[in-house]
Description:
The structure holds 2 protein chains of 2 kinds.
Chain A: E1 2-6, H1 10-22, E2 26-30, H2 33-38, E3 47-50, H3 59-68, E4 75-79, H4 84-92, E5 97-100, H5 105-120, E6 126-129, E7 132-135, E8 140-143, E9 146-148, H6 152-163, H7 171-178, H8 189-201, E10 207-209, E11 213-215
Parallel strand pairs in A: 1-2, 1-3, 3-4, 4-5
Antiparallel strand pairs in A: 6-7, 7-8, 8-9, 10-11
Chain B: H1 9-58, H2 60-64, H3 82-89, E1 95-101, E2 104-108, E3 123-129, E4 132-141, E5 146-153, H4 154-202, H5 219-269, H6 273-305, E6 311-314, H7 315-325, H8 327-332, E7 335-340, E8 346-349, H9 351-367, E9 373-382, E10 385-391, H10 422-432, E11 436-441, E12 448-455
Parallel strand pairs in B: 7-9
Antiparallel strand pairs in B: 1-2, 1-5, 3-4, 4-5, 6-8, 9-10, 10-12, 11-12
Amino acid sequence: MRLLLVEDDMLLGAALKKGLELAGYGVDWLMRGDDLGAADPSSKYAVVLLDLGLPHMSGIDALKLLRSRRDTIPVIIITAQDRPDQKVRGLDAGADDFLVKPLDLDELLARIRAQIRRRDNRSSDMLSAGCISLDLAGHGVFRDGKPISVTAREFRLLALMMRRAGRFVSKTDIEANLYDDDVGIESNTVEVAISALRRKLGREAIITARGIGYMIPK
Amino acid sequence: MKVRRPSSLAAQLFRRIIILVALIGVAMGSLTYWAARSQIHKEADGQLVTAANVLYALMQDELRQGRTRSATLSVDDSLLSGEDLNAFRLSADRRMFAVFFDGRPILRSDTAPIAFLSPQLKGYATIETPDGSWRIYGLAVPADHLIVQVGERVAVRDVLLIQVADNILIPLLLLILGSAALLWLSLQDGLLQLRQLSQILADRSPRDIRLLRNEEWPVDLSLLVTTLNDLFARVDAAFWRERQFTDDAAHQLRTPLAALKIQVQTLARVQDAEERKLLTAALLEAVDRASLLVSQMLTLARLDAGEANREMLDIAGILIECVADQAGIAARRDVALAYDGDQTMMTEADATALRLIFSNLIENAVKNSPSESTVTVTLKARDGTVVVTILDQGPGIPESERLRVLQRFHRSREGGVGTGLGLAIVASAIRVLHGHLLLESGPDGRGLWVTVTLPG
């Protein structure tokens, strides 16, 4: 799953990106408000993390612009502004959650999971399909209740497909989710990860349809 | 000395208007009185003429009988019938008559002050007697050698005049008292709106600075309402400036702390030694930035509290030192530093404040310079002042932002890693030295051109 981070502070932005990546998210980082205003985040990201004091366009204005285009992507505001009227203004502008700096990484991760859960219309962070289950919060993968060890990239791929269990996920979507700034995508990256997962979860766990993509049956 | 509080506007206004009403009342009363008085005299004088003529007419019968020719004519040999005399006597004590024949009194009433009457008196006259004043009219009938004099006491007229005065005085008093009451009531009514205005303001919370609706108030209060609204607007602007400041301060203070916290939490999760090294370096950078922020805030606090030293020092030496301090960073960014000025220049100033000004400005210029550009620093003595300029070839500061960049925790529209305190420190230090700071575009319209003018 990919997150879009909009934060103009170099140090905080870098720290957040690193922390979120360690938690298994792919992160794209923008530094200007108008960059978000121009972006179409729904197609690529699960959640937007938005600072308010941004150069060129305030976070609030960028958020309003986003919502005016009927984009319903979950947005979590991360800001130093902590007055109730500022929270009200942020939430009324279309934010789904509001966190005040300095924030706690664990709390941020929990709030991101909550937004994804709401978006997927789920009641818990446990995804299951067939004999496989995946714990988004605890980062565990289980087959018939027994824990399976997976790499961070495999976890991200599995989480994406489990969220859309019963539907085919295109190779392009998978590539967009696995992409990292520091680790580039090679032409066979997706195939390598899929075959690794098949080895750990069983051949029948992932169905391939040439030209369509991959699916984990419900 | 105790200042005497001016009496209420209503009371002042009340007093003045009542005095005016009283003056007008008295003037009108006096005019009426004098008009009535002259009318009364005219009437009464007319009556005297009539009375004299009537008396003469009544005497016709007797005159025809030739009695006037008798030198022995006396009062008892009345020229008037008894009836006529009786009629006269009813008001006799206030009236008199006397008839002279060839200068001799031939007939007179008891009341006539004969000693004071001149037999020649013709027309009107007022005579004084110990018994009071009389108004006399003498009718001369030369054909009969008669002068008929008729008079009445002036006091009679005074009684009439007193009645007239009474008739004027009482309505006049009522008029003044009535106006006073009416005026007081309408003043209170007018002041009620002033009281309403003050009540509305008193009921407001300190944060309630909504503008008053001017059209809801009488025109007389319009000036006050406009001034109040003006004040409200200024308070509101000050409030928003303060709020902007606290918002910016919150951002600048909390963001480094947020970065520190996230970095520490991330570091705790990373096992890989190489990655830990990278994260630790980033963490140290964040700590350095937080330290810089703290020390800059302390510097500002000291500048706010402190007075500048005035010691003889070499300002050129300090400036060159500050340029040299930035040489390393400038070289790494491929920025050339140029200095144009004396090698020594003695002046009275505070060395610490000067270093703060110069190092912040030069560092700022270097940071904002593109590679292969030049930062030019000059020093000149001019008209008893010392002028330092720093010119870079960077993006400059838009004119609309030049005042704001001097404010604490200012954040540029471009964002970035600054604490927003550097230029605020420069501005404070220059203020402490009683100097002057000017931000302009470079001579070719590009870059930032800073001019610092210090007293020599």
